[in-house]
Protein 1
Amino acid sequence: MKVFMVGWELPPLNSGGLGEACYGLAKALSKKGVTINFILPYNLNIKSDFMNIMYANEKVSGKKILGPYLTYSQWLKAVKSGSVGFHDYISQVLEYAENIKDLAKKERADIIHMHDWLTFPAGMMAQDVMSKPLVAHVHATEYDRSGGGFLNGNVFRIEKDGLERSDRIIPVGGRVGKTLVSKYGIDHKKINVVYNGVEDPQKPCITPALLNLKKLGYKIVLFLGRITLQKGPDYFVKAAKIVSDYYPKAVFVVTGSGDMQTQMICEATNLGVVDKFIFTGFLRGVEKDSIYQAADVYVMPSISEPFGITALEAVKNRTPVIVSKQSGVSEVLQNSLKVDFWDVEEMANKIIAVLKYKSLPKDLRRESVREIVNLTWDRSADEVLKVYKQLI
Amino acid sequence: MIFCMPSICLYFQVHQPMRIKKYRVFDIGKDHNYFNDSSFTALNNKNILEKVAKKAYLPANELLLDLLKKHKNFNFSFSFSGVFLEQLKKFNPALLKSFKALVKTGRVELLSETYYHSLSFFYSLPEFESQVELHDKEIFDLFNKRPQVFRNTELAYNNDLAYWADRKGYKAILAEGWDTILGWRSPNFIYEPNIGQAKKGKKRIKLLLKNYKLSDDIAFRFSEKRWKEWPLTAEKFTSWINRINGNGEIVNLFMDYETFGEHQWKEHGIFDFLKALPEKILEHKDNNFVTPSQAVEKYPVRDTVDVPYIVTWADSERDLSAWTGNNIQRSALKNVYELEQKVKKTNNKKLLDDWRKLQTSDHFYYMCTKWFSDGDVHKYFNPYESPYDAFISYMNVLNDFKLRLKEKSKGNCAGRIKIVE
C-alpha cells in the first residue's frame, strides 16, 4: 500500500506536537509495510530511513515557515507589527497547494492522507490530480487553538472544505470528534477516532540543578507546553498561588515558550509568587525527559486539548499527572487526576494532595504506567490501516 | 440415609455508608462536618437513601410482608449496619417502621455485625468488640431482638473470627462458600470451623456457607441479557434448587438487599421474580425456608472447613484486595486505625463517633484501583469521580480530624499527647 502523506512539519524542525505525531504515525505505518511519501511544503533537508520525504517546492529552502499554532489574535498582531504580510498566513498554505500539483502528477498512491488545515488545500489539490480517497487527520481545530474565542474565518472555511471533501476523518480524541460534528456539521459516520501513541523516554536521568532543589525538600510542579492561551498557563499561575499558600515548599517549573510568557511572569509577580517560578524555555529529547523525571507532578491545565501527548510523555517518565477534563487524553488516561481548567481551587487541592500524601503519587505512577502500555504508535497505525482498508 | 429436599436460607444485607463529602485541603480546620453533602451528586447521603428507599427498600418490604402473610412457611433474615439504621432514624422513620413491621411477624431473623460496617476485626480486636456491642444494643433497642448469628463486614472471614464468635456464644457464623476453602465439597451442608474441640457439654459454633452460584444468579446476573439463562424465572430457579435433591441439605442465598429494585430493576422483573419465588419453592411439599439459627438447629455438621486466611464475598479473588489492595487504601487504613488510643483517651463522644464512621469499609472500597480503567462493578458503585478523588477527600478529612483530636487532647491531658501529622 502506498500513501501520499501531506504534512507541514517534521522533527527536529517542528514547533510542537503536530510534527511529532506525523513522524510517529508514519514510522509505525512504514513498519507495517506501508510505503510512505511524506510531502513537506519546502525543502527542509530532513533525512529519513523509513519513508521518502519530498518537498512540494524543492528549490526554496530555509524560508521561515509559520508555525501551525498561530491564533487569529497572534496573526493580527503579527500583521500589525509588519513582521508578517497580510496574506502570508494563508498564502503559504495556498502556495503549498499550488506547488504540490507537479509532485502529485508524478507520484502514484492508494491513499492521500493530510494533517490539519495547513495541509488541507494541498491535500485537496493532490486529490484533484490523483483521484484517490482522501483522509483528513485532525490534531486540532480552529476552535481548540482559539480557546473558543476569536475564530479566523478563513481558517475555518479551509477546515470545513477539507473535512467535507474527505472520505474519512481521523480526530485524535473523542472531544475533537464531537467538535467536528457540532461546529463543522460533519457526518459522524465519516469519523474514526484514533488516539495518538507515545514513545518510551530515551534515558532515565535527572537534571542536577533540580536534584539539588529536591534534596532541600522542595517539590516540583511542572507545566510543559506552548505558553499560549490554549494551554491555560494563566490558570496554572493562579493555582500555583493557592498551592504555595498551603504548601510553601513547592516550586513551579515552566517548560516551553510562547506569546503568553510575559503575561505569565507578570501574573506570578502580581500574585507575589514569581520567586517560586523557574522558566526553562523550550526543551526537547533527553532534556525534556529529565525535566519530567524531576517533577513531582505534571499539570496540564489546557482550555481545549484535542489530545495532549505531553500527559502520556509524563507518565512514560513515571510522573503523576493532573489533566484538564477538556482534553482528549483524559478520555484514555483513567489513572490521572482530572480537573476543569477553570477550577483553580480544585487544581490546587489536587496538586497539594499529590505533594502531601505520599501513597497517592505512588499509586498514580504505578497504575498509569500500567494503563498506557497499549497506547503505542503501533496500535494507532493498526487503526489507521483499518480506515485505509475500508477506502480501497 | 433418607434424603429430603433442601432448605432455603435467605439472608439480605442492608447497608448504606455515610459517604464523605468532597472535602478540599482548604476546608481543613474550618469544616468539621464530613458526611453532610448537600449537592446533587451521589455523595448526598440523604438523597441516596431516599432514592434507594423509593426504588428498592419500600417496595421490597411491602412485598416481603405480603409473602410472609401468604406463606406461613416463608421466612428470611436481615443484617442491618448501624450506620444504616442511624440514617433511617434521621432521614426516613417511615422506612424504619416498615422494617419493624417485618421483624414483628417473628419470622425475620436479625444478624449481628459491626455497627460501623467496618473491617476492624483485622485491625483492632477491642475496637471490633465495641462496635459489635454497639450494633447488638441498637438492634435490641429498635427491634427488641438479640442476634444469635454473626456475619462480618463484606463476609470477611477466617478461623480467628470463628473462634472469637464461638467464644462470644454465637450459634452460627456466615461466610462465602468459596471453592478454595471447600475443595470438592458442596456449600449446601452445615460445616464447623476449624477451631479445635469444643469444651465438654458445650456446643460449637456452626458455619453457613453462601452458595455463590445461585446467589449471584439473582444478585448479579438477573438482568444480564447476554447470560444464557436470561430471563431468569422463579420456575427455572426452583428447578435448579430441586435438582440439588439428595446432594445437599441447605441452600444459602446471601445477597445485598439492594438487589431488589436498585441493582436489579423493577422494569426487568426482579419484584415479579421475588413475588413468585416462595410459592414455586413451596410447591414441592418437602421444600422449606429456614433462618440461619433454624438451619443450625435442623441439620447436623457434616465436616470441618479450615480457613487460615481471609475470605470475603468480593470480586473474583474473594479476598480483602478490594479494600486493602493498593497503597492509598493501606495508607488511609493505617492513618485511621493508628489514632485509636488517642481518640479513646479523649472520652469525647463526637470524636469517637466520627472516627468510627471513618472506618466504614465503603470509604476504602471507593479507593480501589483494581480494574478501574476497565470500568466495571467498582466504578458502578463509586460515588466519586475516581478512586484518587475518594482518597483525597478522605485524607483531608482525616487531617481535620487530627487537628480536632490535638485540640481535645490538649484539654484532657495537658498537651502530653503528640499527634503524628
Protein 2
Amino acid sequence: MISLKNNYKRLFAGVLALAVISCSNPWDDRENNDDANLSVTLTEAISNSSEISQFAALLKETGYDKVLAASKTYTVFAPTNAAMAEVDTAILDDADALKQFVANHIALTAYSSVRSEDVRVRMLSNKYLDFEGTSDIDGATIITADHYAANGVFHIIDHALTPKLNIWEYVNSQAGTSAMADYLLSLKEFSIYESDIDAKALSEEEGAGYRADSLTNSYLKNVYNLNNERNNYTLFLMKDAGYSTEVNKMKPYTIKVSNDVTVDSTAIYAGYFTLRDLAFAKKYKKSELPASLVSQFGVEVPIDQTKIVEEIHLSNGIVYIMDQVEVPLSSRLLTRQIEGEKNISFINGPRSAIKYRDKKDNSLAFYPEPTLFYDVIVTNPGTGRFMLDYNAKDLYSTTYKVYWRAINDFQTNVINQSLRVAGKFKFEGDTRTVSDLVEHFDPVAVQPNVYTEVYIGEFTLDTARNLDLISLIAADNTTNGNNSLTLDYLKFVPQVKPIP
Amino acid sequence: MITTIKTKTTKGIISVVSAMTLLLSLGSCQDFLDVQPEDKLAEEQMYRNVNDADAAVIGIYGKFMGLAKKYVILNEMRADLMTTTANSSPYLKQLSEHNETADNPYVSPKDFYELILNCNDALKNFDIMLAEKRFKQEEYNQRYSDIGCIRSWVYLQLGIQYGSVPYITDPIENIDDVKNISKYPRISFNQLIENLVDFTENLPFKKPYPEGTNLRTSVDGYSTEYFFINKECLLGDLNLWKGDYLMAASYYKKVLETSTGAASSAYLFDKYRLSWSAANIMVSYISGRELDTNGLLNSDTEGWRSIFSRPVDAQWTYEWIWSLPFDSEFAPANPFISFFSKNSGDYQAKPSQSAMDRWNSETQTNGFPYDARGPKYTYKMVGGEPVIMKYLYKYESAGDPFKTEGDWFLYRAAKLHLRYAEAANRDNEHRIADGIYNRGGIRGAFTRPGLNTGSDDVTNEMQTHKPFPYDFKCREGQFPYYRDDWYRASLGVRGRANLLRKEVVGDSLISIENNLIDEAALELAYEGNRWEDLVRIARRRNDPSYLANKIYDKLSKEGNAEAENVKAKLMNPDNWYLPFNW
C-alpha cells in the first residue's frame, strides 16, 4: 500500500507539471512576439520617427500616407529632415512635382538592405533606381536600415531622391542651347528611313511604344530608345564646335540630292551617321569607361577622357558632355561584307541549281587554322547568265574597292563569273531591267582551289544610297560546267577621299 | 492492482453467445463466404490455357518497358556521349562522374530483379501447364523461349552494370531475398555469361513468333511483330561477350538472312541488308542538290532520321528488329520526352562536347565538314543548347503536348551489321568486317576494280567464296543474269551515312575494331549501347584505358575538375561496376 501511495504522489506531481507547462501555449504565442513594429502600418511607423518628420508630413500632404497604410507591401526610402532642407523649393511648391518627388521614394515591394544581388528598383514614380550593396540607393546613403512595419520596410537616407530626368528628357531640356541636341530633336520631323514615317504615324495615333519600334523620333527608333526608363544607356553629347567638326568630316560621304532646297539632306545624313555611334546600351560610369567602345553598327569609338566636360547622371543612364568625340574616318566608314549564301533572289535558271554549302577550309591559305565557312555555288543550271542577287543599304558617296572570296573546289574547269552593281531594277512582264547601272565588272576567272580573297575592281557612288541589285552573273553559256557560280562573300571597302 | 469482473450474472449470457458463435462458424464451412474477389485473380485462375500464357507474356513485356529509361541512362550517362545539363539532378551528375552514392535511385538493381522474378514465375507455370497438358508443346516452346530470352537479356544488363550478381532462376516470393548472399551467392560476370549462354542456347525455339500465333497480331494499331526480343540477336550478343566469335557471327548471320528464300522482291533484297534501295532511311539529298545543305532530306519520312520518326511501313521494317512503342493512350508512359526535351520537358541530358566533336570531325562525300547523323539528326540546337532528338521526333511532329508517342529503340539493322562485323573481325575475317561497315558495303569489298556489271560475266565475281557464316553473294550481272540476295548491299553503315571511307591503319584487327566502335557511337548514340560497347572492348583487350580515356575525354572537354580522378578510378576495372544494393 505504501508503494501505491508513492505512485499516486508521482502521478500527481507529473500532472501538476504538465498543467503548469501547458499554461504557455506555443500556438497562441505565435501571434504575440512582442514586436510593436509589426502592429503598425508604414504610415504610422514613419510618423513615429522624429528624424524623418518632414518627409512624413509630405506623405500626408500628397496623400501617399493612405497608400502606405494599405495592405500591399512597400519599401520607403525616407530622407532625414536635414536632407529635406536641401530640396529645391521649386519642387516643394509645385503640387505635381511634389507628388512625383514623394513617389520617387516609394517602391511596391519590400527590399531589405540585405540581398544577394544588386537590384534596379522600380519606384512609384515609374523611375528605376539602382539599389547597390547594403546602403547605396541611387547615390544616397542609408543611415539606418530595415525598419519593419506591418506592410513593408523603410530605410532612412541622408539625401533626398529627387526624380531625375531620363536621357531623352535631358536632351529635350538642352533644346536651343546645344546644336547636337537640336539635331537629335529634329529627327522627329525628318525621317532618316522611309519605314520611320509609318512608325511615327502609328506612335502618333496609338501612343509611343505601341509597337516596339513605333517611336516618335528616327534616332530613338533606329539607334536606341533613350526615353525608355527600364534600360540603362550612355550618350556622348558633343559641344557645338566638336559636333560640327565631326559632322563636317562626314559630309563628303553622305552626299544626297534634296528635292527641297530648304533641306540640306547631306548635312542631315552626315549628322545621323556620325551620331548613331554615340549611344550605347549600357551605363558606363566614368571609372568603367574603356579606351574605346564599339557601337552597335560596328564603329570603334575612341573615348578620350580628357575631353569629358561634364558627367550627368540621369534616371536611365549617363550623359557625358564632350568637347569632341573624334572618330577617324577610316573607322567611321564601314566595310560592307555580303555573304554569298544570303542571296535575296535569283534568275535565269532553276532553284535546284543553287547549292548552299557547309564547308571547312583546311588549306590554311587564308585562315590561320581550319575554319568553318558557308558559301553558295550554282552548278548545272542548264542555262546561261544565271544570276544570284544581293542588296546593300546605306552606302556612302565614295569609291569602293571590291573583293570577293570565291571557292572553286567542285569542278576542274575555271569558272568565269562577273559582278554587276546596280541601284534599281524593274519588271516589265517577266523581263527584269536594270534602271541605274553603277558598274558591270569584266568576267573574272575563278581558278580551282584558290582559297584567298581576290580583288575585283572598284566603283564610285556620287551620292550616298542603297544598291538594290547587286548580281553575280554566270557566263552566257548553256553547257553545264561552263556556267557555274561560286561565292563565299563580297567585300566593299569604302575609300577615304583625299582632303581637297 | 488486480481487477476482477464480477461474473455471476453474465456467465449465462456468455454461454449462449459461445453457442451461437460455434453454430455460425460451423455454418461458414460452406462455400458461401468463400467468394473469389472480382477484381483480382487467384493463382489457380492464371495459367489455365494458352491465352493465359499469352497474357503473362504481354504482362512481362509491359513491365519490361518500365526499364527503358534506366537502361538508356545507365548505358549513356555513364559513358562518353551523353552528359548532364544545368537541369540535371545530382544523381545524374554522379553517374556521369562515376561516384554514385547509396541513395542514387538509378543505381538500384531492384527493378531488374522484380522482372526476373516475374519471368521465373511465368517459366515455372509454363512447365506446370505443359505437364498438365494445358497447352501444346509447340506453344510452350515459343513462350518459354521468349520469356527465357527476356530474362537472359536482363541478366546480361545486370552483368554489364554490376559485374557480379546472383543468378536466380527459381521463383521466389520475397524480392529482398535476392540481396541475401548466403541464399543466393553472387557469381562473376564471366560465370554469368557462361550460364546465360548455356541456358539461352538450350531454349527450344529461337525464331520470332510465327504468323498465325495469337501473339503476332495487332494491338491498338501496333503490329506486335517487332515487340518481342530477337533471340538470335541476343545469342549473338551473349556469344560476343563470351568470346565465341564464330558462334556470335553465326547467330547474327541468321538474322541478316531473315528474308532469304523469299521471292524476288524489295523484301528479299532490302530487309536488314542496308540496301541502297531503302532510300528513305539514309543520309541523302534531294536529287541534283547533293551539294546544297538545304537539300538534305530531313523529315518524318525522309532521310536517316526517319528511322526514328517514320510510321511502321516497309522501310521501317527493313531497319527495325526490336522496338517497343510508347503510346499516350496506355501505360507505361513515355519517359523520354520529359527527360530529353528542352521545350516540353526537363532537359536532363544533352550530347557531350566529346560526342559532338566526333560528328563534326567527319567529312561527307560532298565535302561538308560533319556527319549529318549528329548535328542534323541526332541532336539539334535549341536556344543555343544541344538537345538529343532521337526520342522526340514523333512527339514534336504530333504537335500536341498530350500525344506523348515514342519508342524504346532496342535493335536495328545497323547495330546488327556492326556487331556481326565485330564478331567476324575477331574471327580473322577482316575484309568482311571492314566491308560490312565501311563505305561500299560488302558488295564493294568483293567487287574487283574495273569490273563491268553490264557486260562482264560475274559468275565467279562479287562473292566471298566462304562457308557460313561468311558467305555473301552480291552478284549483279546481265550476261548471264544475276541478282543475288546481297547485290544491293553496296553502302555499308558508313556509306549509308554519306561519309567517306574510313581507312584501316596499322594492325587490322585493332584498327577495324576501333573503327567499328567509333562508328557505333556515330550511328547508335543514345540508344543505350555505348557503355556496354566500351566495357565489352576494354574487357576483351584487358585494357581499362580504352574505357577510361573516353570518359576522360568527355569530362575534360567540359572542364570538369574531376576528369583526372575519374580516369584514374576507371583504370581499375572493379570501379566500372555499380554497387549492388537497394
